Amino acid sequence: MALYSEKVMDHFRNPRNVGVIEDANGIGEVGNAKCGDIMKMYLKIEDGIIVDVKFETFGCGSAIASSSMATELIKGKPVEEAMQLTNKAVAEALDGLPAYKMHCSVLAEEAIQSALNDYYSKLPKEDAEVQE
Ligand code: FES
Q: Ligand 1: which residue has its CA nearest to atom 2?
């Protein structure tokens, strides 16, 4: 069996949603201290829906594939749903990652959480309370 699934290779070679959103209202950046990889996630949220998402990842192939798949999974979804996205779901959507590469998918989960937290922190207080 190949080490990486076809989906991992596809998202690594042709990552979706790469780039920056200039007027993003949620931005998150996380890194893995061990490997030094960094992932930055930009969210454009309107009426509680993620209308656009882009990422920049300086990291391994699995981290790039994970960020690409994660953006596909949350695009067009309500923020509450994106909040529930786990690294396991990202890895499953990629038809699996080698066990020692699972931590790469954790970066995608954390980057999205961090961007959503940034979005929530910027909301006017009453709106934040409604969405909690
Ligand atoms: Fe660091 Fe993959 S090796 S995120």
A: 104
